[in-house]
Amino acid sequence: MDDYGDYTSPFQLPTGLMPSPSAPDWLNKADNGWQLTAAAMVGLQSVPGLIILYGSMVKKKWAVNSAFMALYAFAAVLLCWVLWAHNMSFGVGHFTPFFDKPAFSLSRKYDLAQSRGGYYVPWATFVFYQFAFAAITVILLAGSLLGRMNFYAWILFVPLWLTFSYTVGAYTIWADGFFSKRGIIDFSGGYVIHLSSGVAGFTAAFWVGPRISHDRQHFPPNNIIHMLGGAGFLWMGWSGFNGGAPFAANMLSSLAILNTHFCTATSLLTWLSLDMIVYKKSSVIGAVQGMITGLVCITPAAGLVEPWAAMLMGIMSGSIPWYTMMVLHKRSAFFQKVDDPIGVFHTHAVAGFLGGICSGLFGKPAYLDMFYDQKIAPHGPGLFYSFDGRFHEGLRQMGYQLAGAAFVAIWNVLATSLICVFIRLIVNLRMDDDDLQIGDDAAHGEEGYALWGNDEKMFPSRLYMNPRLPSFCRC
């Protein structure tokens, strides 16, 4: 046994030569190289992708705060993930059916051991890739809270929600939890990431409260060109989001990437067509929403369906969330009561649920056999493929898809509500109305754009007008 414990095996080398510790016999360098690339692509979706998207999609006075919420969450999730949350999500201690015990993820010989699941990559790669998923989930949730949440409440919310909500979904569906052992299908996070972020964001928005009346009625994006740039990071980064799910540079990875972009393009064009038919305008913001719903919908099925099914899913993801956002939302008193500035509930919860159901409908048995260990838990067949005498198995799979969605939704409502109630005992969830009139300058003492004179602000910053600061620090 060398410095890497019993995780490595000796190579067949001449006597007297030691094996390279950087290349144990279980390591596949191609798989590991792709997985690190995929993890970086998922990270780029958040930083800078969602930073740019959020900072551009809100009113000018909220550009800094919205972008900073995403940046803070990315850093805070990484720290919490390594220290305790990763082991709660993917530990092998079977502490409970819903999460494992908190533990330091770097305790496994500095993460140079082989990752769980039989993948040919180090544990460190697995930890970082799953961190990128956890981070983007929390940042997506933030979209429901833009334009009014107290940043100090957000500082507390991020680690609490990661610990008590995200880890439960990840463990029960992806690791050794209740639904994983029963064969639920979620290729890359339709339930764990998107349904949970959409439901949790909507729930948190209820507890935080709405924006001020003027902002709810008039909330234009401050820079549509930059918004498109952020959306581009999101779209292209999804190659790593779904393409990395097999943890190998294999056929399913290639299929997942093709299906992802095929579904997304179809969804965008479907949403755009509906906008043009109903509103007689080709909305840029609408096209971005259609892009997002396509990406979300295909995620739980990306490497498990054929391209024709991905195209059909794109049509549904471009039309059903369009209806819930553009028609149902405006008619429903319930939706009107909760302030969801950029429609995260529709683009992520509705589209994620739709994708999970379509996974149970169109999951191809051959692809399911390639992705899942059917000896541990039978997955599928998709209901569409079950008319060859396996109809009861297809119905069972649909039952698990529906039950998993219900569990994720209910757990996120309960956990998010309890977290918000707890934080409210410490600090206000919502900024004061006077501060909401000002925006970034009230929250951070900074503004996103210099608008006046020689790079001066239109209104002096509260922070830097402090007479006790040196003169060169004052505006």
List the helices and strands and how they pair.
Layout: H1 29-57, H2 63-90, H3 123-142, H4 151-174, H5 190-208, H6 213-217, H7 224-243, H8 251-279, H9 284-298, H10 307-331, H11 333-337, H12 344-362, H13 365-371, H14 391-424, H15 433-438, H16 440-444
Helix pairs in contact: 1-2, 1-3, 1-7, 2-3, 2-4, 3-5, 4-5, 4-14, 5-12, 5-14, 7-8, 7-9, 8-9, 8-10, 9-10, 9-12, 10-12, 12-14
Q: Gist?
A:
With about 475 residues, the chain is mainly alpha-helical.
CATH homologous superfamily designation of the largest domain: Ammonium transporter AmtB like domains
- Which structural category do the helix and sheet elements fall into? mainly alpha
Question: What composes the largest sheet?
Answer: none
CATH topology of the largest domain: Ammonium transporter fold
Number of domains: 2
Order of helices and strands: HHHHHHHHHHHHHHHH
Coarse morphology: globular
How many helical stretches? Answer: 16
CATH architecture of the largest domain: Orthogonal Bundle
Mean pLDDT: 89
Helix content: 55-70%
- How far the N terminus sits from the C terminus, by CA atoms, comes to 64 Å
Membrane topology: Multi-pass membrane protein
Organism: Coptis chinensis
Subcellular location: Cell membrane; Membrane
GO molecular function: ammonium channel activity
